[in-house]
Write a structure and sequence with these properties.
This protein is an all-beta fold. It is built from no helices and 13 strands. Helix content is 0%, strand content 57%.
Length: 141
């Protein structure tokens, strides 16, 4: 897939050329950019045997967005999880208890991600957890 800027649009908009992965043939263009503001996306982390440490969710954010909430659970055991942006705790997603039942937590502040930011899941207080599933709801800004 090739990327090329289209000068007919604002600088935050790009024209993306699509190529069929099997044949290599050009299949069309899609304009992306400002019309994607407000798009809801997910970032999902699955860790089979989580331990107390930091796990990168996104090493380098490619677009700006707001972290709105998390949904999380383990198959067995429990742990405490926090989400950080460049090492700063996302309020509402700090010290969240994760166990067998799927639950959610709402981010309340310090939840805006800029291009280039690093998002991390910090696990602590592990008590024999397995199959951690941690999803973030993201809204492009």
């Amino acid at each position: 897939m090739g990327f090329s800027p289209n000068n007919k649009h604002k600088s935050t908009t790009s024209l993306v050329s699509l190529v069929d992965a099997d044949t290599g043939n050009f299949t069309g263009d899609v304009t992306i950019g400002e019309d994607l503001i407000g798009l809801i996306e997910s970032a999902v982390v699955v860790i089979l045997v989580p331990t107390d440490r930091s796990y990168p969710i996104e090493q380098y954010a490619q677009v700006a967005y707001t972290i709105e909430e998390s949904r999380h659970q383990t198959t067995a055991g429990s742990l405490t999880a926090s989400v950080t942006i460049n090492g700063t705790i996302v309020e509402g997603l700090a010290n969240v208890t994760v166990s067998g039942a799927q639950e959610s937590a709402t981010a309340t502040s310090a939840n805006n991600v800029s291009v280039g930011d690093k998002i991390t899941l910090v696990v602590s207080g592990s008590s024999s957890p397995t199959d951690l599933q941690f999803a973030l709801k993201l809204k492009r800004t």
